[in-house]
Design goal:
single chain, Ribonucleotide Reductase Protein R1, domain 1, two-stranded antiparallel ribbon
Amino acid sequence: MVLSLTGYSQTAPKPDPKEPLYDLAIFKTTGTSKASRLLVPSTVPDVLHHPFKVRGGLAGIDLGCVDRRALALPLVLWSIAFLAGLVVLVAGVVSGWIDDEARAERVFRARQRALSGVAIGLNPAVKPGEPLLREGSKDTEGFEVRLSDESGKINPNFWIAQNNRDIFIRLFESWEVDLRDRDAAIDGLTDWTDGDDFRSLAGAERGEYEADGRIGFPANRPLLGIREMEAILGMDRILSGRADWKENFTIWHDGKINLQHAGERLLSGLAELNPEQCRALFELRAGPDGVEGSEDDVKLESIEVAAGLVGAGGRQLASLQAFFDVSGGVRRIESTGFCGGTEHTIVVVAPENGGGQVMSWEEE
């Protein structure tokens, strides 16, 4: 019997009847259905460690490498899956870096455009409605500037120093705030801005703030910014339900509300002017071009003249005289820059003719 080996050939010795035989496998002989059993004597076990194929009518089978080849396939598949996952991970990280850098670039460009708008808005010669206040497109790159006046708002510091609660009572009544919450808000504002530790009837001093878990309050000084009002116990409950409350307050105009720049919310809430009277006043103030703050605006001479022009008398006139006047001016510049869908807003408060001076600077 001759074994044909891959790279190896020898004549197998005649089996010894006394030696054990190795039962390797069962093969089917070529052309028959009879099973044949190949028996190899123990004198040639070293042959089994070499890759070989049994020939001579038997089906060719690699007996030496079957186990190692079976292990190689899952290792290869696992390696491919690992490398594929690593490639996907690296691609995601790189894509995230690229997106972050692109967004940072857009934010930077949008802020630069907003700064350009602020520089234009600080020029006292530039008036609302002028073409200089708009440039470019929101789809590409540019800015838009909105000019208004802070003197048309309520200064809480001024009215609390005057010990005038009526303006807050009128405002909160127009907001439909109940009596208890209204008194708590006004007394809380008083305790926040006074310089003592004596608690108002419905207000809050150090003990009430500490019981609420807020150490070091109230400030016992005038407001340094409108956002402080949200921290006042009692006032916070009222303001939390009104998204537009900041449009009614300022700390930059020290005096009564300037009727030349007051908005409809305060005119209707404090002086009880109806929508027709408010619209007539706005048209009068805006002048022929219909843009408030421009060169052709009609300057109101006095509260009495303005009230007569819009048909306000009695209680309306008394309220106008109590809460409004026609003096003062503080420019508010709201500049929004945009680049590729990203926006950046800068809000600046400056004197009306301040020559570039800045009283407040906020960025959003």
